[in-house]
Q: What sequence folds into this?
């Protein structure tokens, strides 16, 4: 780690520790899950050790959230567990959590219009699109707290006090579409940040997603819009990785958003050089797009030791990615996404933020 | 039971016993499941005890199957377990079975075209729309055997030798759409029978579904067609029952099929009288439709003791339903669907077939 002190504020919400759905269900098998509260704690500890100031997320109303997500989704996330418990759904002992079991796919509906089921266990599959992303006690509070963290980071940057702010969001968010949650994500913190930056007067905003997985939710939210560019480097879904159905190179936007979406899917085993080429090409896109503010979906699960992806990125690679994005010279909000290898998580985030601070250090110190 | 001997042939496939996915996953909880091989055995025993002749299903090629289902679905069902095992997917010891975990719902895709994932665990959710309907060793053989049973029953009726034939299909089929399986069903035996009857020269065919649950698959397959009428009495999905998303009264068909679909959703606790009114109204529809052949989706899970539905139908009710449908005077293929209360299953099927034989007994003996 460079011999310096980080100055990027870490926006923290205590609520992030409340989300604990006690595991996941993966291909029918209950497993422990890797998106756990300890992730946030080790990242915070590493950032503090690197000297970064920690600031508490401030409550924000739902204005921006409602501009990004369907109200049906937020209502579902905030009320479904109570309905689940009221209706006596299981429920292994001590495991009150909402898990869908039937899903209104195209194959199921065959063109019929989607009608929202009355029963809570039927309705679950309308919003939740996988069996990994369980709603338990504290899930809503944590997800909403992560949104507040993202919005607070936007405030810090928009005020001009900071060139970079980092929202330590947990749970992560980039898999959440307008009205669907999955991939251990519940509310799309990065999309909220981008939308908030739009509201702060930035006519064009870019989201660069360096998480190991494609941010299908963020892509979807802005897919028809030209004002928010979305670019992602990620392991190729066609190599067999989540989100499986979305994240291909030829997905470039629709309607007015054509050209404002760029996916760089990478082969399993991709290491720093090729990954950084991808990041560089996205940075070039941001320049072309004319964005005046940047959101970084900062997943560090592309790292060499991460259990959830086959990419092979080093700390140096993450730092270099941060430097490339810093070179854009834009007010930047970094939002935590994935990253699951507890021993290296903190160092990877510190490395990336160190890179993102390059410009600030160069010009400001 | 009336003092008589059943003459309706029972078409049997030994393969029906091979399907044993060792449970289901319901709202995230692995459970034992009720769609078990013993169901077929107790029904067969009861039919034999009632004097019904048992005949073995004969192999049929895929012509009719391909007219009903997408080839992607049949390929998936016949090959996915091998892919699953090859790729090392989990699983609990001794439980090799395919279970989806991510589903391309509208909320997930947000209007993106559906692209078939390369990875077997990703692709699973393209075809399987719930977590209850697992593909294990023997699943394909059993499902394909059930199709042969349905087609053999059609042959027996089409030959003129029998007014009624009964295919003891297991697994059941009415939840299978053109390209989606679920609800413990894999191939739509009733739809195959109806399509086969069309091929035997019946210009108009009707499917009457008296299973406790809506046959969303059969509805979907014929939804845009006027040549096959689909009618169903079932517990109201809006009361919180599978298939949750489909089976409402206002679903009446699309395009050329408008008017050839009739759902009679019933309140929880509905007993014989109201249920039989529903069956009578569907019989009237069949007359109006001008069908010259009938398929009965014979689920007996509407029975009073069945664990899978809240309807309260008695043996007498099922016999009366059989009589109402017999009064149509049409060549009739009955296809087994649900029914999960082992002690009463056999008697319920015997009662229904007894009713269906009414006309034959009256005129033929």
A:
């Amino acid at each position: 780690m460079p011999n310096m002190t980080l100055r990027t504020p870490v926006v923290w919400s205590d609520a992030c520790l409340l989300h604990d759905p006690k595991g996941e269900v993966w291909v029918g098998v209950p497993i422990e899950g890797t998106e756990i509260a300890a992730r946030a704690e080790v990242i915070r500890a590493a950032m503090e050790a690197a000297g970064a100031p920690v600031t508490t997320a401030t409550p924000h109303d739902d204005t921006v959230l409602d501009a990004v997500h369907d109200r049906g989704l937020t209502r579902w996330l905030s009320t479904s567990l109570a309905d689940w418990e009221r209706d006596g759904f299981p429920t292994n002992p001590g495991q009150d959590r909402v898990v869908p079991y039937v899903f209104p796919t195209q194959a199921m509906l065959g063109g019929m219009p989607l009608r929202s089921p009355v029963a809570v266990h039927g309705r679950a599959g309308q919003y939740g699109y996988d069996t990994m992303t369980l709603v338990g006690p504290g899930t809503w509070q944590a997800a909403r707290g992560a949104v507040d963290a993202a919005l607070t980071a936007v405030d810090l940057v928009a005020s001009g006090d900071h060139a970079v702010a980092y929202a330590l969001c947990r749970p992560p968010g980039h898999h959440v579409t307008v009205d669907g949650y999955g991939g251990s994500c519940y509310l799309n913190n990065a999309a909220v940040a981008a939308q908030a930056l739009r509201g702060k007067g930035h006519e064009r905003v870019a989201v660069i997603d360096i998480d190991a997985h494609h941010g299908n939710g963020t892509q979807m939210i802005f897919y028809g819009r030209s004002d928010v560019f979305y670019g992602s480097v990620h392991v190729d879904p066609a190599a067999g990785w989540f989100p499986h159905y979305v994240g291909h190179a030829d997905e470039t936007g629709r309607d007015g958003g054509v050209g404002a979406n760029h996916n760089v899917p990478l082969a399993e085993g991709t290491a720093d050089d090729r990954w950084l080429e991808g990041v560089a090409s996205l940075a070039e896109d941001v320049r072309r797009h004319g964005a005046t503010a940047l959101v970084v979906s900062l997943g560090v699960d592309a790292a060499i030791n991460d259990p959830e992806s086959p990419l092979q990125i080093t700390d140096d690679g993450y730092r270099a990615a941060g430097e490339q994005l810093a070179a854009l010279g834009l007010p930047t909000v970094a939002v935590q996404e994935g990253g699951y290898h507890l021993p290296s998580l903190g160092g990877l985030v510190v490395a990336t933020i160190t890179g993102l601070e390059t410009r600030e250090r160069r010009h400001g110190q």
Notes: The domain at 10-70+138-362 of chain B is CATH 3.40.800.20 (Arginase; Chain A).
